[in-house]
Amino acid sequence: xxxxxxxxxxxxxxxxxxxxxxxxxxxxxxxxxxxxxxxxxxxxxxxxxxxxxxxxxxxxxxxxxxxxxxxxxxxxxxxxxxxxxxxxxxxxxxxxxxxxxxxxxxxxxxxxxxxxxxxxxxxxxxxxxxxxxxxxxxxxxxxxxxxxxxxxxxxxxxxxxxxxxxxxxxxxxxxxxxxxxxxxxxxxxxxxxxxxxxxxxxxxxxxxxxxxxxxxxxxxxxxxxxxxxxxxxxxxxxxxxxxxxxxxxxxxxxxxxxxxxxxxxxxxxxxxxxxxxxxxxxxxxxxxxxxxxxxxxxxx
Length: 300
Hints:
alpha/beta, Rossmann fold, ornithine cyclodeaminase, domain 1
């Protein structure tokens, strides 16, 4: 084999990503990528984790779409933080193209997946949002839903009242007095927390509402109660393969993986009548799709 030594990878910073990855464009990129995946023109590789005795963990997920393939690699430690990068390659030659700082990119692509799911599953006239959680992912969730639905009322609730108040002031929304207050009467619900136990109750959710559960991608953590999983008429996941590995919301509810209500987001073709759920875990395909968009905008 003859090795060809390429030029150093083009470095894309957090500031670059912020400038060149608006939420509406990220949603459009994921819509195309999921359509490509459905047509068997894209690939996704489920996340793998290596956990060290120190508590440090290395996470890796990958995907391929259009003329690109790549991997997101990130390291985490419960006491020291997290660091995210995407490595993007040319699919035709395997040449390395870019090293991308991916903290902001991850927030945007997670929000964009919710935006796409909400557009496909939530009632077209939905205009009320209940948001549980006011941390890192919450802003992206709100921005994405505002791209696909005209919201007239948004309530946010968090266990940390000060954080919820700060979020509400920054984003022009209302602070809910309780999690129930945020969820009741909301046509769209988002849970974006680090909770290990359910953050809402099934009977708070109104008939026909759509729920986006994005906070957990660990098999022993969940945000939704099993009663809500049972009550839903449709449950969409970004990847069944990945959901079986890490969707605690479904695993801890002992879901039957052959249940007709369970579907991958790429295969959604019509809006359900009853309650719908999107259980988001985050895919390498999503990272590659938005990373490629930023790369193209910076290199042309």
